[in-house]
Amino acid sequence: MKEFDVVVIGAGPAGYVAAIRAAQLGKQVACIESESYADPKGQIRLGGTCLNVGCIPSKALLQSSELYAQANHAFVMHGIGVDGVRMDVPTMLRRKDNIVTQLTNGIRSLFKKNKVTQLSGHGRFVGREGDRWIVEVKGKDGEELVAATHVVVATGSSARHLEGVPVDNRIVCDNIGALNFESVPQRLGIIGAGVIGLELGSVWKRLGADVTILEAMPDFLAAADQAVTKEAWKVFTAGQGLKIQLGVKINAVLPYENGVRIEYESADESIVLEVDRLIVSVGRLANTAGLGADVVGLQLDDRGRVDVDAECRTNLENVWAVGDVVRGPMLAHKGMEEGVMVAELIAGQAGHVNMNTIPWVIYTHPEIAWVGKTEQQLKNEGVDYKVGQIPFVANGRALGQGDTTGFVKMLACAQTDRILGMHVFGNNASELIAEAVVAMEFGASSEDIARICHAHPTLSEAVHEAALAIDKRALHF
Ligand code: FAD
Ligand code: NAI
Fold first, then answer.
1. Cα of 221 to ligand 2 centre, how many Å?
2. Which positions are annotated as active-site residues?
3. pLDDT digits (tens, 9 = 90+) for 161-173
4. Which of 142, 179, 387, 408 has its CA 20 to 30 A from that of 104?
5. Is residue 39 scored above 90 in pLDDT?
6. Which residue's alpha carbon is nearest to atom 43 within ligand 2?
7. CB 270 within 8 A of CB 276
8. Coil, strand, or helix at residue 83?
9. Does 369 sit in the ligand 1 pocket, CB within 6 Å?
10. CATH H superfamily, domain 2-159+285-353
11. CA 109 to chain centroid
């Protein structure tokens, strides 16, 4: 039986990062990855949901579709005339697939470089011998047992499906099928106006689909700041033509050969929607089935996730869990941070993840990004706060780019001036938010940002101005 200091189950962003970091710290490490994702030759692809069917392929399609939308609608204001703009969907998909291949192969190289042993197959706890955990690895070429002092569970998550709505990833799709439409559907239905619904709805809308998104909740993007959601709602619906219906109740989803009939209720009205394709994006569930949790007594929470403390320790000695399979936001960067923390704790160092400074980004156009508290959270918590908000229309770079939608909103404590949150709706929000993350990690005040020189002309000047606006001394608005 092979023996390791650390065995990681799952090679998504949380798992592969934990494996690499533990190896960097001198541990003998193996990482088990199942056959969920394979290349055309049948070779297992590392990188999990994020690299194979999540963050990376979706951002590739968002970029292609955004360029197509710009060629059609934005070039003209610069005086650029283009006739006959066409979208070649197979080429767009090939480009996306090549990026995925490049990155998944990259993880394989990183494993080699760091001497992480890759074990192929499904990982499952089978017991404990002395101070070692015994894990079974069962793949298409047979099974083997490995022993490990530490086990890191990083098995991630899978799309939640609706009861009675079978996903065939042809007509009714989850994220996997939705990233692979070989042509633009004329009519696309989406259940769930969350992150996937908005991102993938934007992709196919830009390419010409008539997109209807059905959302159960009465509020749009309830987790984001209301100033952002109010503005984003107008831009996405009236501006971009996404049809989003809130507060719906889905009664039936009836797929047929070339389409789907969706029967739902909205404001006490019964409505029937016929579409060519349907994306079901109603959240994700932790992958804990078949892990042998019951065999070794690994404790799960009421949502089937592995129960962990702030340091990702489970109820079992030297068993850790990180990423989507545990509490907290299901985000790749959150999982990676936890992977590093656990590897460092295993090596006797002091690992830490600050859950208050995990940024969120939704890659629509304009992008939505935030970190820290929303204004409504501060109100609910009775915190006395100040607001500084600057629209991009007052920013020279945004004007030059012809993209002035949105704003930067900063929130700071009224007594201490400490930054409590920042919310951006605008072009490149995903990059701008990093400044607020750094500031909040360092416990900065809004005055700290106000006194820092920001290059001119840049979008980051809107962050600077928002900080100045907190003290009512914005210079350009
Ligand atoms: P996963 O990435 O799910 O990886 C888990 C791995 O474990 C998988 O490879 C699986 O095959 C393997 N596995 C499971 N069980 C076993 C077992 N028993 N034995 C062996 N192997 C096993 N997040 C962002 O931060 N930014 C984004 O832009 C973003 N975009 C997304 C877009 C889409 C369409 C989707 C679906 C998700 C997106 N996410 C994004 C979320 C992100 O993909 C996840 O948060 C991230 O992948 C979680 O990482 P993980 O390592 O915990 O799990
Ligand atoms: P989500 O949680 O973002 O959104 C799901 C939406 O579906 C919610 O608004 C919910 O109210 C709605 N819903 C649930 N049941 C419903 C029903 N029966 N009928 C109608 N609506 C219903 O989940 P989503 O979009 O599936 O994405 C999963 C996760 O993946 C995200 O929460 C996020 O963690 C991650 N992700 C992150 C991205 C990013 O960081 N940019 C991009 C895409 C996904």
1. 10
2. 456
3. 999 999 999 999 9
4. 142
5. no
6. 196
7. no
8. coil
9. no
10. FAD/NAD(P)-binding domain (3.50.50.60)
11. 24
